[in-house]
């Protein structure tokens, strides 16, 4: 079959990104924590209303910084969805604590609050909700459960830049939130991330942990005469070259989001008849959620049908992708964590879920050809 080649994703880039990277190189301040980092952190603070944002080298490192800051350690348990990226669990394992995996809601693939409540024990130190596909988890329920348990909420908002829940930015609702600016994300500098700190009492220590356990940030602000080793810490700062690139992406973040949400809506409209016919299930967006069009996923009737769709897409030169192998069934998940309660939804949906191509420059022709393949496999024309 002929048709345009459709990549799964393609980062959006403009002249301004190039200009700012060159500017950063010419300015000669290549290490982290400089003026471009300040620009990015100010954008994050004003767009999310977080008390403080700290740029990090990745979403993974933002999660590691969050868990360190939360004081999570041996003997603690942290409740999280099984349907997530390994970084959500690794940060907990690195501190000697135990990830406790629970099931998801079928429409959003977000953590199911009923399962979270059932998994709480006297050892529960935190809950990490993951806003899958940039659609918010039920934060009222999760924050309520965490409050009752005396646990913290660390949002894994890796996929959720420019998305909100009940008018509040994702990542800025729990005590801490982690964002990712990996190349696969809506706003990207290749590898990057940020920690959002939403409680004033945590800010001073966060700055110290971020800067190798020193008070260098206070020193640079002229608040102390010299900087010293004050606490544990590590190097979480990205180079100014990446911050310069990211600052240009941030200026276009809402345009990128609008373009993605438009494409997401177009899929949603085109695929309604296929859902009515029982061929696939479309994602659900709960009331009050403003997602960011990060992922459009469908759930097919069976793994065999998914394989058929993948093969037909491949023949049409269209890149589609499956997603997570649930962590409770992965080798490291079994070794380091434990599952709580039934995993009916993730066990059933993960092997049938498929992500469709979606990127800001996607053309209507590319979009139509993807939908056409699905219609054809469903026996509904195309
Ligand atoms: C849910 C989730 N958490 C964490 C991460 C890790 O982010 P990064 O790749 O920036 O380290 C990702 C990245 O794919 C993710 O999807």
Q: Which spans of ≥5 residues are poorly predicted at pLDDT below 50?
A: none
Roughly how many Å apart are the termini? 12 Å
The main pleated sheet reads as: 8 strands, mixed
For the record, the CATH architecture of the largest domain stands as 3-Layer(aba) Sandwich
Structural class: alpha/beta
Tally of structural domains: 2
In quaternary terms, these chains amount to single chain
Question: Can you give a write-up of this model?
Answer:
With 382 residues, the protein is of the alpha/beta class. It folds into two domains: 15-251, 3-Layer(aba) Sandwich (Aspartate Aminotransferase, domain 2), CATH 3.40.640.10; 253-377, Aspartate Aminotransferase, domain 1, CATH 3.90.1150. It has helices at 15-27, 35-48, 59-69, 86-93, 113-119, 139-149, 203-210, 216-220, 240-251, 253-270, 272-276, 303-315, 331-336, 344-349, 364-377, and strands at 52-56, 77-81, 98-102, 124-127, 152-156, 164-165, 168-169, 176-180, 193-197, 280-281, 289-290, 296-300, 338-339, 353-356. α3 runs parallel beside α4. 40% of the residues lie in helices and 14% in strands. The strands form three sheets. Strands 1-9-8-5-4-2-3-13 form an eight-stranded mixed sheet, sandwiched between helices. A three-stranded antiparallel sheet has the order 7-6-11, with no helix packed on it. The structure holds pyridoxal-5'-phosphate. Residues 58-60, 84-85, 87-88, 130, 156, 158-159, 180, 182, 193 line the site of pyridoxal-5'-phosphate. Pyridoxal-5'-phosphate binds next to α3 and α4.
